[in-house]
Inverse folding.
């Protein structure tokens, strides 16, 4: 395990807490820079070295990371993209967006520019999966249940749509039932996508959720992620299964996620991202 002090830039979900626990177990020094309105204080822990900033305070955040002595940085957990009115940028953030220009319109361009900005400050940005090495799913069935012929056809259809959307830097997830695209992910995120699809379920075999890494994606940040809540929401939406990008996505709380999927009759599979519709 590297001994460089790890700065954890914490968004929502369980990943920041998982990283904190991994650092404690390995003895690696760490510091949490938590994003207000997104990070979970209870999961991070009151005794963790930490600072809290709002989204528009890049200058304060970078200064806190330097003062804490961080060398490596990892960005973990979803962050809802703010409007400019919500952002209220400090001088450093305003300068960053002015320099970014049209690249700020897409998530991929924004994240790549953010990584370049942090590395320009002397930090080394690493991926979550380089620290939590058990998170990336393998190819094939991951739980007890497996997709049937219809589900495999729906997965292939969703993969084709995901690849097109991803190339346009739109989203990472698609829901397909019986060959019909029920919904695609944009800025709202996967949970909201699944909630929308509840009212669109058709009679007959349930659909599938497919989450793929974008073709041009910077894989150190924003990998497609599935956890226990995704499983619950997929079942509530009437789906039969979830397909994840093998080797290029994150399966949070693997045992709990797959255990819940097994109990609810939902399949979870790793796919290559190259599946072709029949």
């Amino acid at each position: 395990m590297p001994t460089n002090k790890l700065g954890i830039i914490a968004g929502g979900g369980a990943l920041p807490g998982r990283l904190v626990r991994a650092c404690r177990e390995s003895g690696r020094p760490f510091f949490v820079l938590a994003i207000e309105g997104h990070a979970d204080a209870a999961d991070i822990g009151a005794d963790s070295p930490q600072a809290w900033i709002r989204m528009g305070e890049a200058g304060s955040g970078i200064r806190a990371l330097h003062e804490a002595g961080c060398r490596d940085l990892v960005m973990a957990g979803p962050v809802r993209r703010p409007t400019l009115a919500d952002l209220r940028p400090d001088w450093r953030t305003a300068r960053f967006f002015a320099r970014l220009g049209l690249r700020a319109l897409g998530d991929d361009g924004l994240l790549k520019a953010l990584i370049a900005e942090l590395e320009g400050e002397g930090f080394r940005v690493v991926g979550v999966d380089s620290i939590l090495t058990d998170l990336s799913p393998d190819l094939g069935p991951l739980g007890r249940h497996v997709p049937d012929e219809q589900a495999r056809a729906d997965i292939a259809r969703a993969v084709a749509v995901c690849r097109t959307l991803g190339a346009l830097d739109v989203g990472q997830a698609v829901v397909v039932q019986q060959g019909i695209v029920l919904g695609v992910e944009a800025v709202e995120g996967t949970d909201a996508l699944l909630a929308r699809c509840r009212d669109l379920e058709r009679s007959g075999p349930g659909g599938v959720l497919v989450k793929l890494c974008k073709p041009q994606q910077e894989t150190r940040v924003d990998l497609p992620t599935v956890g226990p809540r995704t499983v619950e929401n997929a079942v509530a939406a009437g789906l039969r299964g979830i397909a994840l990008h093998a080797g290029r996505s994150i399966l949070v709380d693997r045992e709990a996620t797959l255990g819940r999927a097994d109990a609810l009759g939902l399949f979870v599979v790793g796919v290559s991202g190259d599946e072709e519709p029949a």
Summary: The longest helix spans residues 149-167. The mean pLDDT is 88. The chain has two domains: 6-130, 140-271.
